[in-house]
Amino acid sequence: xxxxxxxxxxxxxxxxxxxxxxxxxxxxxxxxxxxxxxxxxxxxxxxxxxxxxxxxxxxxxxxxxxxxxxxxxxxxxxxxxxxxxxxxxxxxxxxxxxxxxxxxxxxxxxxxxxxxxxxxxxxxxxxxxxxxxxxxxxxxxxxxxxxxxxxxxxxxxxxxxxxxxxxxxxxxxxxxxxxxxxxxxxxxxxxxxxxxxxxxxxxxxxxxxxxxxxxxxxxxxxxxxxxxxxxxxxxxxxxxxxxxxxxxxxxxxxxxxxxxxxxxxxxxxxxxxxxxxxxxxxxxxxxxxxxxxxxxxxxxxxxxxxxxxxxxxxxxxxxxxxxxxxxxxxxxxxxxxxxxxxxxxxxxxxxxxxxxx
Length: 357
Known about the structure:
CATH class of the largest domain: Alpha Beta
Strand content: 15-25%
Low-confidence stretches: none
């Protein structure tokens, strides 16, 4: 399949120029094609959400299991009328506060939404992205767009155009080359079809943020039973995994760095190339403590400061992909306190890891 690219990186702030550049990509979506595009969270791979044949092309391109539901992206709240039976009052309050933005809201779907979008469930997750490239594309297409992350299934989500080109060239009709995604992890998904509402996937909009608007919400367990259909992406299958096995060290910072240094030395002594996920506070420690003769065989990358978890979230998927590029044999990673945004970061890192120590 020929993949056409639409490079808008130099015209993002010019709405008229964006519309001119993205007209053909929007026509692809209208005509049953697949187009990858940036959002503020990660890049998505889109198709007309009301066209069953088009949606099935998403699963084929990604190698995605058919019982893993998709999120439907819209440009205008008026589009909700054809997608959901009713918008609960609490959902309206969340939309008023967080839309456009990185919050996906699950509601009872209409018969117009094909079962392949929702894995046969009676509910659909809806989101309105705030990224200008996404908004213009969705507005021009004039249809709701089903879009999971624009990566091969199970691999780290793409936050840069280069990631999408690597994974999907030759698999999709079009790729919009836009900005690096601001947030860096996928949207928060909240199920409003139940009371109290349940966060099925944590994101940059936290439980505390949501409770400040609508009161008590619950958080779902880490995984769906393997025999069940998940209500949201990321609940059942392996996600975000780099090529090399990843070990996540989960203890207090001093003990964690000591354990990583010991394991790194052992792996390096066996001739392996070792990747270390560090922070600004610890990167220098790993660089100075590892034996000088072993350093050339290490790749130490910082996610940012522990005092700035927004930056950590922004960087985590890009770093996992960097280790693939560096062809490391094993990845040793620090963990973060699972509170607020840290909870969302650890949700992704837990799913990427082969082992937690």
